[in-house]
């Protein structure tokens, strides 16, 4: 101890908090595209479409990022009526201002390649990824299925506002908006001047045609309904609709290979929306067996995790159908996430996800500006060293990045150290600790996306409650706030170099109950003990011994 590590740690936390405040984003007002109404290019309820724009400046004045908002789909009159009078169906219901951060940030430090571009978020309001076009409007429902017209009307409006002089342009989007960016990528290219350098970016838009847990083709039937209801077929790429049923052309795996404009896919292989709505939608899980697992990956049973691993393989084989041509970019990580470019946390911050040491902002920037190609797929969760996947029939060694877990070699070592230490230090009344927890907390990794219990002994901790504890540590208000471990609430009694002590506020034990929390490079170690000052020093010694063994390995 005594290395000044807690000081360093608190400093890092403090800087983190400051960066967070500064990066929280700024608000950008809404622009209604009123002239679109005359073209019949309207939202579900007939209101004008809308976007938010932050103008480019300096060298970025002729560069345009057109990013489409996400928000699922409506597949029939019932679900479209339910959407009609919400922000996803009517510009009358949209917030007048939204926050810009991540890929929308106007600060070089947070968005090095696009900060000075014209940055736009197009509001999603048709319920079919801007593909629909039905002339007739039913009087009774007043539903307008005109998404494809909205897309063109918005691009025309932007061209008139200066995009006709664009030097660089990107069509991007998140989720259903990312699907727009794939489906309309070549159309966007065609609407811009030949001299403009155009590329497309899909963030969480690679929805795959997989069976659900009941074995039904839920998403395939759903997309088929979307395409039928909105009259989308004529606006899907003909290279696909000439070969197969239009409903199937809503799946990127069936049409993205034919996209001629360079396309970059950012996607989690365990995309949380896909797990919840393609793999285990409510209709396929009538007994709610997947309910907790869908909310929190650490609550999945081993058979559910296995099903998710199989889903990942299916996802990767759908990705492989894209081919490996070099204008394609791939950032396929193993987070349980959905949309990673719009938030600073995942786009570019110290602890953002990486593949091969590269964060999403850099991978996309390098690819757009042709500084270097980027095609990386992370290994499965939890990590196994040297995993391989099949891509286009060739075996490719995938990246072995530090992401949710430390590399498996280290992991095996940590596990061994823990087992030996816990059997000597935790459990029975003559041992110094009654319980202990090891929490994956790598301040340089995106562990905050998912606080992971690496090991536990003498306690069955709830990951949700523990994430409150990790938040408490992150907030760095050790002296003024309390935290929970299990049912007990604790207040901090002393703060030291790389550790702190706390006492339970609700113990019934006469000598009290205490906690010792120590930080290592990649973990938080929590030791819980019963008793007095004497037992506190024994407990401290025990935790210290474990931490010392980890720190010798820089863990
Ligand atoms: C509309 O779609 C929803 C969701 O798939 C479904 O539950 C409902 O039965 C459908 N309604 C009609 C009228 O087809
Ligand atoms: C623990 O004590 C705190 C503060 O006195 C109280 O708010 C909380 O409800 C108590 N919890 C239990 C489980 O008794």
TrEMBL record:
It holds the Pfam family Profilin. Hydrolyzes acetyl esters in homogalacturonan regions of pectin. In type I primary cell wall, galacturonic acid residues of pectin can be acetylated at the O-2 and O-3 positions. Decreasing the degree of acetylation of pectin gels in vitro alters their physical properties. Residues 1-25 form the signal peptide. Keywords: Cell wall, Cell wall biogenesis/degradation, Hydrolase, Secreted, Signal. GO terms for biological process: cell wall organization. Belongs to the pectinacetylesterase family. GO terms for molecular function: actin binding; pectin acetylesterase activity. The keyword Signal applies. It is an enzyme of class 3 (hydrolase). It is found in: Secreted, Cell wall. Its EC number is 3.1.1.-. One of its GO terms (cellular component) is plant-type cell wall. This is Pectin acetylesterase. InterPro entries: PAE/NOTUM, PFN, PFN_sf.
């Amino acid at each position: 101890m005594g290395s000044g590590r807690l000081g360093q740690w608190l400093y890092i936390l403090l800087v983190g908090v400051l960066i967070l405040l500064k990066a929280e984003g700024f608000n950008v007002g809404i622009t209604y595209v009123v002239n679109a109404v005359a073209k019949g290019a309207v939202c579900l309820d007939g209101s004008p479409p809308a976007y938010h724009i932050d103008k480019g400046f300096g060298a970025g004045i002729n560069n345009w990022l057109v990013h489409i908002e996400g928000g699922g789909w409506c597949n029939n009159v019932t679900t479209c009526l339910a959407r009609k009078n919400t922000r996803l169906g009517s510009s009358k219901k949209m917030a007048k201002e939204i926050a810009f951060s991540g890929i929308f940030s106007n600060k070089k430090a947070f968005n090095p390649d696009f900060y000075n571009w014209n940055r736009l978020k197009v509001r999603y309001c048709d319920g079919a990824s801007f593909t629909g076009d039905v002339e007739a409007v039913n009087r009774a429902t007043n539903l307008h299925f005109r998404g494809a017209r909205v897309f063109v009307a918005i691009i025309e409006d932007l061209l008139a506002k200066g995009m006709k002089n664009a030097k660089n342009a990107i069509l991007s989007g998140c989720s259903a908006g990312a699907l727009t960016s794939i489906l309309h990528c070549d159309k966007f290219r065609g609407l811009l001047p030949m001299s403009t350098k155009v590329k497309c970016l899909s963030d969480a838009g690679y929805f795959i045609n997989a069976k659900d847990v009941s074995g039904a083709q839920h998403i395939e039937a759903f997309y088929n309904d979307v395409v039928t209801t909105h009259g989308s077929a004529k606006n899907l790429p003909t290279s696909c609709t000439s070969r197969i049923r239009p409903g199937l052309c809503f799946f990127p795996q069936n049409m993205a290979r034919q996209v001629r404009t360079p396309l970059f896919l950012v996607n989690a292989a365990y995309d949380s929306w896909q797990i919840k709505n393609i793999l285990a939608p409510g209709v396929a899980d009538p007994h709610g067996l997947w309910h907790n697992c869908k909310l929190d990956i650490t609550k999945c049973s081993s058979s559910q995790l296995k099903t998710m691993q199989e889903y990942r393989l299916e996802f990767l084989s759908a990705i492989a159908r894209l081919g490996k041509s070099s204008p394609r970019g791939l950032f396929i990580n193993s987070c349980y996430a959905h949309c990673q470019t719009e938030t600073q946390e995942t786009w570019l911050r110290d602890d953002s996800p990486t593949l091969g040491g590269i964060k999403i902002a850099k991978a996309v920037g390098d690819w757009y500006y042709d500084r270097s190609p980027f095609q990386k797929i992370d290994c499965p969760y939890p990590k196994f060293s040297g995993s391989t996947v099949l891509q286009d029939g060739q075996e490719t060694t995938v990246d072995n990045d530090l992401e949710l877990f430390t590399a498996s070699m280290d992991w095996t070592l940590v596990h061994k150290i823990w087992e030996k230490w816990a059997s000597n230090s935790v459990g029975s009344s003559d041992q110094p600790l009654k319980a202990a927890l090891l929490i994956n907390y790598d301040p340089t990794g995106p562990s905050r996306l998912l606080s992971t219990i690496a090991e536990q002994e003498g306690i069955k901790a709830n990951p949700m409650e523990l994430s409150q504890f990790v938040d408490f540590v992150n907030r760095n208000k050790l002296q003024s706030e309390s935290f929970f471990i299990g049912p007990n609430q604790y207040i901090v009694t002393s703060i030291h170099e790389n550790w702190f002590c706390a006492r339970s506020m609700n113990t019934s034990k006469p000598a009290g109950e205490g906690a010792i929390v120590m930080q290592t490079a990649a973990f938080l170690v929590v030791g819980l003990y019963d008793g007095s000052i004497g037992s506190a020093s024994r407990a401290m010694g025990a935790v210290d011994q474990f931490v010392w063994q980890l720190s010798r390995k820089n863990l």
